[in-house]
Design a protein that fits this description.
Blueprint: E1 4-8, H1 14-24, H2 34-43, E2 48-53, E3 56-65, E4 70-77, H3 86-101, E5 106-108, H4 115-123
Parallel strand pairs: 4-5
Antiparallel strand pairs: 1-2, 2-3, 3-4
């Protein structure tokens, strides 16, 4: 994996990240727009990690820490690059970020219908917690 470079996104990467998520990520979020990603990067410049290979964006993960919980969102690998250790490398970088910030446990948001993702998370040592349920309330239309 020496040809894989993981770095933090900055504001110049927003359009590329949105195109990448459209192609590689499962599902969409209310925050999947220029303003949403700009707010993320501006508020927490180290949270959006990108994996590049040969100058091409091949993976992403959001590793957010609010001082209480470590939360992972948007783990995505380009379909042509899956099963090459990119997700593992991104999660190792995210977990190291959390450790450096004093985090104690990682929570991952994973779509229920995304069976492929379930296998990825389990292989990384994550366990499903069926006694929790996510509750949401959109604040905008």
């Amino acid at each position: 994996m020496s040809d894989l470079h993981i770095r933090c996104a900055d504001l110049t990467h927003i359009d590329a990240v949105l195109r990448f998520w459209h192609e590689a990520a499962e599902g969409t979020s209310i925050s999947d727009d220029h303003d949403g990603v700009a707010r993320l990067i501006s508020r927490d410049p180290g949270a959006l990690l990108l994996a590049d290979r040969d100058g091409r964006l091949v993976g992403s993960v959001i590793a957010g820490f609010d001082g209480w919980r470590c939360s992972v969102y948007r783990l995505a690998v380009h379909p042509d690059c899956r099963r090459q250790g990119i997700a593992t490398a991104l999660m190792e970088a995210a977990e190291q970020r959390f450790l450096d910030l004093g985090g104690r446990r990682v929570d991952a948001m994973v779509l229920e219908a995304n069976e492929r993702a379930h296998h990825t998370w389990a292989a990384g040592g994550y366990q499903r917690e069926d006694h929790w349920r996510r509750w949401v309330k959109p604040l905008t239309d």
